[in-house]
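Late entry, evening session. Most of the bench is empty. Finally got around to the prediction I had been postponing all week. Sequence below, unchanged from the version circulated by S.P.
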Amino acid sequence: MKIPRITLAAYGFAILVIVVDQLVKAWVLGDLGLRFEGQSHPVLPPVFNITLVHNGGVSFGLFGDGSARWMLSVFSLVVAGVLGWWALKADRRLLVTSIGLIMGGAIGNVIDRIRFGYVVDFLDFSGTGFFPWVFNVADSAITVGVILLVLDSVLSERAAKVGVAAEKS
């Protein structure tokens, strides 16, 4: 089976997200010297800090006790697999980009769950007073991917309506 070139772009985005996510997490855990949860490194205080958080759950601390580690890992791998299959059928650049970002983010977080039993989060903008959550590169890729997916849906829906003549009653 020949994989379409546009699909390879989705897989490329996924690989790029995984590599960047894991390299940045290794830097935070290694060279930056954050060893204990809650330990922080100021970057632009008080607005932005790198703060180590062990996220055993999903968004907003749901299942935060780590009890769903393997269920979440399997679910994320299934989602990544479905996205990989969808990428084989995709024909729009924005759609392919969004699929790749979401797929890469999901796999990046699965790697953490398998290695550590939790996801390593560290991007901390809680000093703004508007955004109390700490997140990571994979989470960012998923968020941007979902936004692009919605945008692609809206744009492709509009494009489908262009040129369609209105029926006369």
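Two things to note before I forget:
Helices lie at 5-29, 69-89, 93-116, 137-161.
Strands lie at 40-44, 48-55, 119-124, 134-135.
Will write this up properly tomorrow.
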